[in-house]
């Protein structure tokens, strides 16, 4: 580094400087990187919802992901199936849709691919484009709950953001103990809308309560419930 603070090795044709800079460049496909990030967030989401997810699946490196799924992953191979730890009979399935507009035929195709519908409690569809009204009506016909996420909303795990307070979903027992302690009914707690990013991450249902833990220089350390 010279007196002006510039790295002059590369300017003088120094190959060592070029190698150092190239180590920061991702030479793989953007498509595979996006699938990798979204799938990792989904695995973390399922784990945080109480599903059994192997740590090895979450911790897989981008390089290993590309080695297994290639630089142009087939969305059908990315699907995830998991069972609830507290009740293994309750299962969730994650299906990645392709880059095209999701039409009713695509939803019908999804329906034919699902086996053991009786044991499936939830389905998550990962979209890369918009979904038509007819397709939405077809989704409503499923006997289990269906959630939809745009892939761009899954590139970052929002619960890991540094400025985001920590959230923990209370069990029914913890919820009842809380309401009894403060002589409250659940309608008196601050509401969390269904489309709230945290509510969607945890797949919250009506009546569930979340403990919110703040710990920052501005907000200070305190706990609220929603």
Count the helices. How many? Answer: 8
Main-sheet strand order equals 1-2-3-4
Order of helices and strands: HHHHEEHEHEEHHEE
Beta fraction: 15-25%
Could you describe the largest sheet, including whether it forms a barrel? 4 strands, mixed
Q: In terms of structural class, how would the helical and strand content be classed?
A: alpha/beta
* Range of helix content: 25-40%
In short:
With 226 residues, the chain is of the alpha/beta class.
Task: Give structural attributes.
single chain, alpha/beta, 8 helices, globular, disordered N terminus
Give a structural overview:
The protein is an alpha/beta fold. The protein contains eight helices and seven strands. It has helices spanning 15-22, 30-48, 55-58, 62-69, 104-113, 133-139, 172-181, 197-202, and strands at 80-83, 91-96, 120-127, 145-150, 166-169, 210-216, 220-225. The N and C termini lie far apart (53 Å). 16% of the residues are buried.
């Amino acid at each position: 580094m010279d007196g002006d603070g510039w790295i002059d090795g590369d300017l003088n044709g120094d190959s060592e400087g070029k190698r150092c800079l190239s180590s920061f460049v991702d030479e793989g496909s953007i498509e595979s990187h996006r699938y990798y990030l979204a799938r990792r967030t989904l695995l973390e989401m399922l784990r945080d919802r109480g599903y059994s997810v192997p740590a090895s699946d979450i911790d897989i490196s981008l390089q290993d992901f590309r080695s297994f799924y290639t630089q142009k992953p087939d969305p059908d191979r990315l699907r995830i199936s998991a069972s609830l730890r507290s009740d293994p009979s309750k299962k969730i399935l994650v299906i990645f849709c392709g880059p095209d507009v999701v039409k009713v035929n695509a939803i019908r195709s999804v329906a034919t691919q699902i086996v053991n519908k009786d044991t499936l409690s939830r389905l998550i569809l990962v979209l890369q484009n918009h979904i038509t009204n007819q397709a939405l009506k077809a989704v409503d016909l499923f006997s289990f709950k269906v959630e939809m996420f745009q892939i761009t909303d899954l590139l970052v795990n929002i619960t890991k953001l540094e400025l985001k307070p920590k959230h923990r979903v209370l069990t029914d027992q913890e919820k009842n103990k809380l309401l009894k302690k403060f002589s409250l009914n659940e309608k008196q707690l601050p509401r969390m809308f269904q489309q709230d990013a945290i509510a969607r991450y945890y797949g919250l249902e009506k009546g569930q309560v979340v403990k919110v833990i703040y710990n920052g220089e501005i907000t200070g350390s305190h706990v609220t419930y929603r």
